[in-house]
Specification:
Number of strands: 22
Strand order of the largest sheet: 5-4-3-6-2-1-7-8
Strand content: 15-25%
Bound molecules: adenosine-5'-diphosphate
CATH class of the largest domain: Alpha Beta
CATH topology of the largest domain: Heat Shock Protein 90
Number of domains: 4
């Protein structure tokens, strides 16, 4: 007897003692494994000319009520002894359990669906499971058997053809749980219809039927008939009008291991072009936990003529739509090898079509169902922004109208177009402000003047935002402009006149602060607040922060301008001090600079010095 690896053991325990109410899904999991195994052999056969045809394949179900056995047999690729060991003794997806544990407490976590720990689900309904398998091309067969938690055994066995037979010894009914029904023909038929109807190989069950005896009509004659339980038409080939939302949702959850229904389903086909295809695409409601990491793999399932060629064909999706899941079935004429797929121009055509479709569906959602779109954007907006920024803005025109930013005046997310459409005639720029939150932005000293003109401001709260906006540079010929950089194009912008005294005061402050600032000036962007920082040049203060938060930060620095409000009482005081006590101005300069840094969320070099200085002034 061999022990399960620790992680497998834990998942197995979860299965056996499952609080999971849908135990019936074990059948879906095993049938989908069977279908995958046949796919593998069929694919191999096409590649190596093994002369199988699709009709040679099937999945067989057997019920033996007396022995309480339910058996699922496929004539697919099969498993060798080593494969039995490595596939069924260990759970490949390591890390999935950690994740599950992190989510402990959230009740509705469908661990099975989520992680596809499929095979083990058999233990939810069985006391014992036997897997007899013979790998294609091998003469020997083996049996893997287990009663659950303690471990498993692998022994030699007999099997006439390649493939796998899984025998489940169904548990006895208990007060709370009913298992008997998994030995009922009607139930099995119902479950296959419900979960596995689309499987493209026949799922066959021998059923006992009765008919009137030909000779004696008062008698019933029993006979056995093999019934194919599934329609074998994959969902994407079905007529849209014959499908319900539930059908799509169930297909999505089963196929892509999500426990939430998708936010959006896009089912379409293209015909009469140089390439025909059917596609069912899904936009998940939530970003997968690893979405914004290197471990996430984009791609669509690619079938040609009903055969699965690739599980994740990355070339079908641009990076900025990498969140899309789905299936594409086409009549590609391709040499079935992965290398050639990448250079296949038909595939490129399909990809271009899909991209157009996804974009137009997103645009329609934005137009017609704002709430759904906002949810979408919360999950995947970051990816769209990366898309704008990537490749030096190559795709910015495709994506710019999919962006949402929070508007200060409207206090809700708006598109750039919506902002643009409401711009005042006198308004020179599309204004934005960066900060760590909308609330933080609203109270920035720099926003007051712009709002005074009834000009709106877009809030940029994610690290990538300003980079994306800088790549966009303009929208319909209107430039983007940060409220914290350069001139603002306001009508009364240049009314602040520096006197000779002011010039000397500002020079003194600049001298005191040295290299920390590029310039000190009287501000035309401040209204009531005494001080702020702005920047000159391409690098903004927000971008400086982003760069310096990176692991290999090099201490990049924006060209900072310390701006003082000449209408503020403090500046009046400074003017007085200029005559009475210049040294005092130096202290104030240091204090004002740190305050401006703090407002911007910039790190301050020596807070103790600052604190001492302020306390001295207060005492
Ligand atoms: P998953 O199917 O999600 O990979 P499972 O636990 O259901 O996880 O199965 C583990 C592995 O065992 C599969 O990836 C496959 O390689 C193998 N396997 C399971 N069932 C069969 C089968 N009927 N025929 C061949 N191989 C199988």
């Amino acid at each position: 007897m061999k022990k399960f690896k620790t992680e497998s053991q834990k998942i197995l325990d979860l299965m056996i003692n499952s609080i999971y109410t849908h135990k019936e899904i074990f059948i879906r999991e095993l049938l989908s494994n069977a279908s995958d195994a046949i796919d593998k052999l069929y694919y191999k056969s096409l590649k190596e000319n093994l002369s199988y045809s699709k009709e040679d394949f099937s999945i067989k179900l057997e019920i033996d009520k007396d022995k309480r056995i339910l058996r699922i047999t496929d004539n697919g690729i099969g498993m060798s002894a080593e494969e039995l060991e490595s596939n069924l003794g260990v759970i490949a997806r390591s890390g999935s359990l950690d994740f599950k544990q992190n989510m402990e407490g959230s009740e509705d976590v469908n661990i099975i669906g989520q992680f596809g720990v499929g095979f083990y689900s058999a233990f939810m309904v069985s006391d014992k499971v036997e897997v007899v398998s013979r790998a294609y091309g091998s003469a020997e067969a083996n049996m893997w058997s287990s009663k659950g938690a303690e471990g498993y055994e692998i022994t030699k066995a007999d099997k006439a053809e390649s493939g796998t037979a899984i025998t489940m010894y169904i548990k006895n009914d208990t007060e709370e749980e009913h298992y008997d029904e998994f030995l009922e023909e009607y139930k099995i038929r119902e479950l296959v219809k419900k979960y596995s109807d689309y499987i493209r190989y026949p799922i066959m069950l021998d059923v006992e039927r009765a008919r009137t005896d030909e000779k004696d009509s008062s008698k019933n004659e029993k006979y056995v008939e093999t019934e194919t339980l599934n329609s074998m038409v994959p969902l994407w080939k079905k007529n849209k009008s014959a499908l319900t939302e539930d059908d799509y949702n169930a297909f999505y959850k089963d196929t892509f291991y999500d426990y939430e229904k998708p936010l959006k389903v896009i089912h379409f086909s293209a015909e009469g072009m140089s390439v025909n295809f059917n596609a069912v695409l899904f936009i998940p409601a939530k970003a997968p936990y690893n979405y914004y990491s290197k471990t996430y793999e984009k791609g669509l399932k690619l079938y040609t003529n009903g055969i699965l060629i690739m599980d994740k064909c990355a070339d079908l999706l641009p990076d900025y739509f990498s969140f899309v899941k789905g299936v594409v079935d086409s009549e590609l004429t391709l040499n079935i090898s992965r290398e050639t797929i990448q250079h296949n121009h038909q595939l490129k055509k399909i990809a271009a079509n899909l991209e157009k479709k996804i974009k137009s569906e997103l645009a329609a959602m934005l137009e017609n169902d704002r709430e759904a779109y906002q949810n979408f954007f919360k999950e995947f907006g970051l990816q769209i922004k990366y898309g704008i920024y990537d490749n030096w803005g190559m795709n910015k025109d495709t994506l710019k109208d999919l962006l949402l930013f929070h508007s200060v005046r409207k206090d809700k997310p708006v598109t750039i177009k919506e902002y643009f459409d409401e711009m005042k005639d006198s308004q020179k720029y599309i204004y934005y402000a960066s900060g760590k939150s909308v609330d933080a932005i609203k109270v920035l000293p720099q926003v007051e003047r712009v709002l005074e003109y009834d000009y709106d401001i877009l809030c940029l709260t994610q690290d990538i935002d300003e980079f994306a906006i800088k790549i966009l540079a303009e929208y319909e010929k209107k430039e983007f402009r940060s409220v914290s950089a350069g001139e603002l194009g306001l009508a009364d912008e240049n009314i602040t006149i520096e006197t000779e005294d002011d010039k000397q005061i500002l020079a003194l402050i600049k001298d005191t602060l040295g290299d920390k600032v590029a310039k000190v000036k009287l501000s035309s962007r401040l209204k009531t607040h005494p001080v702020c920082l702005s920047s000159e040049g391409d690098l903004s203060i927000e971008m400086e922060k982003v760069f310096n938060a990176m692991p290999n930060a090099q201490g990049i620095s924006a060209q900072k301008v310390l701006e003082l409000n000449s209408n503020h009482p403090l500046y009046e005081k400074i003017r007085k001090l200029f005559v009475e006590n210049k040294d005092e101005i130096k202290d104030l300069a240091k204090i004002l600079f740190v305050q401006a840094q703090l407002i911007e969320g910039l790190p301050v070099d020596n807070l103790t010095e600052y604190s001492d200085l302020v306390c001295r002034k207060l005492s």
